Amino acid sequence: MAEAHQAVAFQFTVSPDGIDLQLCHEALRQIYLSGLHSWKKRFIRFKNGVMTGVYPGSPGGFMVVVVSYMSYNQYRRLDPSMGLIAKLGQHMPISRYMSTDSQRIVGGVLVGTGLWVTIIMIMRNVLKSLLSWHGWMHARHGSVSWSTRLWLFTLERPRTGMSSVNNDYLESVRPLMEDERYERMEGLTKDFEKNLGPRLQWYLKLKSWWASNYVSDWWEEYIYLRGRGPIMVNSNYYAMDFLYVFPTSIQAARAGNAIHAIMLYRRKLDRIYLLANKVPLCSAQWERMFNTNRVPGLETDVLQHVNDSKHIAVYHKGRFFKVWMFYDGRLLLPREIEQQMERILADSSEPLPGEEKLAALTAGDRTPWAKARETYFGRGKNKNSLDAIEKAAFFVTLDDTEQRFEEDNPVKSLDSYAKSLLHGKCYDRWFDKSFNLIVFKNGTMGLNAEHSWADAPIIGHLWEHVLSMDPLKLGYTEEGHCCGEPHPNLPGPQRLSWDVPAECQEVIQSSLTVARNLADDVDSHIFPFIDFGKGLIKKCRTSPDAFIQIALQLAHYRDKKKFCLTYEASMTRLFREGRTETVRSCTLETCAFVRAMIGDETVSLLKLAAEKHQNMYRLAMTGEGIDRHLFCLYVVSKYLGEDSPFLKEVLSDPWRLSTSQTPLQQVELFDLVRHPEYVSSGGGFGPVADDGYGVSYIIVGENLINFHISSKHSSPETDSHRFGANIRQAMLDILDLFQLEKKTK
């Protein structure tokens, strides 16, 4: 194999004169450049490790402390260490070979170092205490208390109290239960709190003292990795391109700029140049963004992460390719990446038997994929090709369809675009990769991301970087190509080779059938809400997120004539290794407002509902939510072999309305005042319950909110387009309550 020959830096040539064994200078050169690149990265990581290891101190601070201490000791002829320097000097192993002055210098350096370390530890603990304070989260919007100002100027672990969790749970389900069922639930809660609960709580507290986060590892394993159903639609989610801007219609060019921008982001991530934020958030989720793959197992999957990967995997018309991202020791430029994509698009070779639909294995049930992977992909060319995909930096699909927002057909075009990103043809995305970059034939693009390694804001941060780099900083020529020139000597992409037996092809077809049934059942509806945005909502003196969540409750009640358990995701990255917590948006206050809207319109109830929602959101972000705690108690009960009717009932209730806001995190990258057309469509996810809705929304600028709605065609209770119409009307009706036009006059 060619890779093996290059690895040992020798080339064999058979000729009439015999075998000519010659040194391959190009191979040695590439090995040298690869080693140089690797050592540069190691040095940068070592340097960053030193800098972060002594944070909030610095090597420069060390020199200042030691030199200042020594100077004070030398010129003042005073010993602030009260004799410690002299004692240290006397006990130096080489003191007999040193003069008294030398001993004094060495002792001074040691004492100065100790003083520097002491200062760092004091500063670190003070800073930790400061960053653990979350009182600013509970301040009224638009006002800043003196305590918050003092905290900002000077710039506890999550709650594990069981009693308050149970009380909050009962409050959250009260509007959803009839009196008889609620009284029964109260009895189960009291029994749990008196008997089994304290025992489970003790184990949970023990874990909270030992582990860096008492939730996240169990959440990752039991919610994501142990799931045996398809991750396509059920877990993976998507992100869309610009809504109104189409930088180029050349597929290879769009891929060239996007891939280069993604690789630049990875470089910044490797060098720890990212993630600066005024609010201290844990950055652990970024660690597995690249070079990561979800490997299927018989009972549980495993996240496989390699430290570095110098290539990407590309799929086009049933063929897989390996494309190196570096040449001559440097990252390929956008035009050079475009050149590689052009070569793939121009390749007219046919897929090998079983190759075209191979990725359907990642779209179906996990156990058949695990068995097939072990049986058919454990050795030979199949293993090498699979490794090339699973160990790639990320996966790219050069899609042969066209997707785009069309002004004359906005509903159908956006719905088709969303479904293509969410599941495609069910065999043209590698759903196990941390994320897939999908570039369509007409130059539109998007992402499909696997969920277990991180949450949506993490991939959203990358996507904002890519969208801001692509048209504005990297740019295109007048013809639509990437800027720059093709490389005359750039080696082409490597076509991956497979030997897929007939038995494996049957497994592939079976997985494809499961995936297609799931994909065909998805009812997606995406619509830009352009009537108003957060600008007008703020004039109502109401949180935009609370406003939208209450509108969703009103829309759902009109849609189904009933309330339901509602999930809103809230991040918990204020804590180390934090993931998410649930905001139970269907509250007593919100239900009271909805009933009033159905009968008698009132603003006061809306204010109470909005204030309640905001307070619950703050509690979730600051570790005071209830659902992750209850989940962990349930896990402990399973480990102990204890059966809890209370916990079983709590965790069996379906989330028939699952919602999430896509935050715009890097607002400085987009000047929406001067360029309002550069707005993102946001992203979405599949329905969580068979008879429920999934709703994602992004608040863009002051005048636009994009909604992504999903449900299942098979449910007679749901209709995504009907629900979208109800959301739009609910938003308008709630705004009318404030009579802003009359107030303006």
From TrEMBL:
<comment type="similarity">
    <text>Belongs to the carnitine/choline acetyltransferase family.</text>
</comment>
<feature type="domain" description="Carnitine O-palmitoyltransferase N-terminal">
    <location>
        <begin position="1"/>
        <end position="47"/>
    </location>
</feature>
<keyword id="KW-0813">Transport</keyword>
<keyword id="KW-0496">Mitochondrion</keyword>
<keyword id="KW-0812">Transmembrane</keyword>
<dbReference type="InterPro" id="IPR032476">
    <property type="entry name" value="CPT_N"/>
</dbReference>
<feature type="active site" description="Proton acceptor">
    <location>
        <position position="451"/>
    </location>
</feature>
<keyword id="KW-0276">Fatty acid metabolism</keyword>
<dbReference type="InterPro" id="IPR039551">
    <property type="entry name" value="Cho/carn_acyl_trans"/>
</dbReference>
<dbReference type="Pfam" id="PF16484">
    <property type="entry name" value="CPT_N"/>
</dbReference>
<dbReference type="InterPro" id="IPR023213">
    <property type="entry name" value="CAT-like_dom_sf"/>
</dbReference>
<feature type="domain" description="Choline/carnitine acyltransferase">
    <location>
        <begin position="167"/>
        <end position="729"/>
    </location>
</feature>
<keyword id="KW-0443">Lipid metabolism</keyword>
<dbReference type="GO" id="GO:0009437">
    <property type="term" value="P:carnitine metabolic process"/>
</dbReference>
<keyword id="KW-0808">Transferase</keyword>
<dbReference type="GO" id="GO:0006635">
    <property type="term" value="P:fatty acid beta-oxidation"/>
</dbReference>
<feature type="transmembrane region" description="Helical">
    <location>
        <begin position="50"/>
        <end position="72"/>
    </location>
</feature>
<keyword id="KW-0012">Acyltransferase</keyword>
<dbReference type="InterPro" id="IPR000542">
    <property type="entry name" value="Carn_acyl_trans"/>
</dbReference>
<dbReference type="InterPro" id="IPR042231">
    <property type="entry name" value="Cho/carn_acyl_trans_2"/>
</dbReference>
<keyword id="KW-1133">Transmembrane helix</keyword>
<dbReference type="GO" id="GO:0005741">
    <property type="term" value="C:mitochondrial outer membrane"/>
</dbReference>
<dbReference type="GO" id="GO:0004095">
    <property type="term" value="F:carnitine O-palmitoyltransferase activity"/>
</dbReference>
<feature type="transmembrane region" description="Helical">
    <location>
        <begin position="105"/>
        <end position="127"/>
    </location>
</feature>
<keyword id="KW-0472">Membrane</keyword>
<protein>
    <recommendedName>
        <fullName>carnitine O-palmitoyltransferase</fullName>
        <ecNumber>2.3.1.21</ecNumber>
    </recommendedName>
</protein>
<comment type="pathway">
    <text>Lipid metabolism; fatty acid beta-oxidation.</text>
</comment>
<dbReference type="Pfam" id="PF00755">
    <property type="entry name" value="Carn_acyltransf"/>
</dbReference>
